[in-house]
Amino acid sequence: MRLRALLETEGLGLRLLGGEAELDRPVRGVMTTDLRDPSRYLSGGELVLTGLVWHRGGADSEPFVRLLAAAGVAALAVGEAEMHTVPDDLVAACTRHRLPLLAVDTAVSFATVTEYVVRQVSGERAGDLAAVVDRHRRLMTPGPAGGGPDAVLDLLGSDLDLRAWVLSPTGRRIAGSGAPLAEDRAAELAAAHLAVARTGRRGPYRVVLGSTVYALFAVHALGRGAGPVEHMAREPRETALAEWLLAVEADPGDWPTERVDLLQGVTQLIAVERDRRDAARAVRRRLAQEVLELVQAGAAPAEIAARLRVAAPVLLPGGGPAPNWQIAVAALEWSRPRPAQGGAAVLTSLLEEVLATAGHPDGRASDRIAVAYAGDEAVALVPLPPGNADPPHDDGGDPALRPGDAADVSRTAVAAAARDAAGARSAADAARAPGAGDTADASGETSTGGAAAARGAAGASGAAGAVRVRGSGGARDVSGAASTGGGGTDGSARAGGTGADGAAGPGAEAGQDTGGAGRAGADARAGGRGPGLFADEIAAAVREPLAAGLGGDGRLTLGVSAVVHSAEGLRGALEEARHARRVAAARQGPVRAAGHHELASHVLLLPFVPDDVRRAFTARLLDPLRDYDTRHRAELVPTLEAFLACDGSWTRCASRLHVHVNTLRYRIGRIEQLTGRDLARLEDKLDFFLALRMS
């Protein structure tokens, strides 16, 4: 409201003493004070009411008025009840600082003036908000005139001074008012929202992160777009996992009801955009469903390839060569109040968001992912530009062998493996001959020579049985142990590190999630992670928010296939992704993912070992060492881990432990004495390796 309108209001008993030229100033609030310096409580635009208790003499007016003018107040209103007249020095000071001065009649209380101003200002703010929302509606209209959610949030910033963002349930930023929002903070906001929204409590939710207060609103799906959102689950814990949220940097406790209601209206406008995007996704979902049905039905590769040619321009606009493909499979399970599978609509939407959140900075996003639903699983078909194909590699074979090539590859691999195995066995026999047990290393110390040859034999024999040829519907080699030799890249991972097939060594923390098993294999092949989706990156990107949404009764498990280059490879890729998801499901935790590299490692087997077998196996090998360590503080278990991690090199292990080599020899001898094992034998080293991994 304007100061002129306030002055003209009958019943307030206001009269103007000075500042007639400033009557068009807006009044945004009211404050009553008798402090000598009230500036700390002023934000600008207030009508300041005072009873002149602070006025002791003529010298007091100038500093008081100067502070008010500097704070940008709208006007000063003085009550005459105390002094019966307004001092001339105060009138003069207000004139000098061009501050309008009003007198309040003795018959009118400050409370009456305050109530009137508050009521008028609140009503005008509601009207301003209504005008803003009306502008939002025009901006959200389809076509070139519409600006989408970014324009809506820009208006919230410019008109209401509110910083706001639209986030997915995984914390992916969908739109913003231009203000920066760190990825970590976005994940925290999504987690806070899911933790409350799953309870069904009505928003907005007030959240404090650090020293900043946020208001969180759920963006409820309207359900008018085609696709799974039409049948969205009604249970709050599931619905929350598929909903966007509006995060506003402000305290909702300070808002009038009108502002809360109108911001709820803004969420409905954003829901229109969500509905529009779901309608666009429906085309991709139908394409994915058709491809999935063909693959599962064992259709001819030519028929699948024809369907992929239709899908490729939709998922990778711009034409060009046929893309490569990758498959991701996800399942959502609830344990309470009774075991149940997640709804198809929620899981489909959630997998799209998960993969979009974990997307690489190469432009791949949710509009390049097609998700279908089969059984209790969501299946994502992810295109990759053809230039991103994996180069041929030894730890997994060509991800999509053509049926005509599979037999040749298998015969070649088996023959090579047999030759290498024979050579490695001869080396191992020679190593066990008298005088060949130890060889001097560069420092004059010795390392167990038979172990390297034995590893070579194991790697070669593993390769001999590695290649499997499936039916002509999708011949594949999914082995990760086909390379030979004793260099530690033969599939028997180095302890404490990661082998070429991604198997974590015993130096890793016991029981840790090896979702990143593929990192070493990719690094070894291309000096980096290479193209495509990686299970550990997916899990890391979404674990914090989704763990909050899943609570203690939900689990999301994902499996990721290797990259395939043609329709012939899709059937094997689907199988591979489903096997990887089962590996992930065998682990503990609300969000777990596994990749194709883990299917060619001992990591695949360990989760399925019964708990009683695990305990018996590890107790037999490690309990004597732990007991000895407890009694003598001897550190035999850490020594064993380091010895395996150093491939039995006395010098490197002693250096790693910062002990003399003779001390190391004593400890290894004590380990062998307590367990009855020989750490020069591959079988015993492997048993210790597995015991450490399972402990």
Largest sheet: 6 strands, mixed
Radius of gyration: 36 Å
Helix share bin: 40-55%
The residue ranges in which pLDDT falls below 50 over 5 or more consecutive positions are 142-146, 224-233, 360-364, 388-527
Describe the oligomeric state of these chains in a short phrase. Answer: single chain
Task: Describe this protein's structure.
- The chain contains 20 helices and 18 strands.
- It has helices spanning 3-7, 61-71, 88-96, 110-139, 148-160, 183-197, 236-239, 257-296, 301-315, 344-357, 403-432, 449-464, 518-526, 535-550, 570-585, 611-632, 636-645, 650-657, 661-675, 682-694, and strands at residues 14-18, 29-32, 46-50, 75-79, 101-104, 164-167, 173-176, 205-209, 212-219, 244-248, 324-334, 340-341, 370-374, 377-384, 438-440, 446-448, 554-560, 591-595.
- Helix 3 links the parallel strand 4 and strand 5 (101-104).
- The radius of gyration is 36 Å and the shape is elongated.
SSE topology:
Layout lengths: L2 H5 L6 E5 L10 E4 L13 E5 L10 H11 L3 E5 L8 H9 L4 E4 L5 H30 L8 H13 L3 E4 L5 E4 L6 H15 L7 E5 L2 E8 L16 H4 L4 E5 L8 H40 L4 H15 L8 E11 L5 E2 L2 H14 L12 E5 L2 E8 L18 H30 L5 E3 L5 E3 H16 L53 H9 L8 H16 L3 E7 L9 H16 L5 E5 L15 H22 L3 H10 L4 H8 L3 H15 L6 H13 L1
Parallel strand pairs: 2-3, 3-4, 4-5, 17-18
Antiparallel strand pairs: 1-5, 6-7, 6-10, 8-9, 9-10, 11-12, 11-14, 11-17, 13-14, 15-16
Helix pairs in contact: 2-3, 4-5, 4-8, 6-14, 8-9, 11-12, 16-20, 17-18, 17-19, 18-19
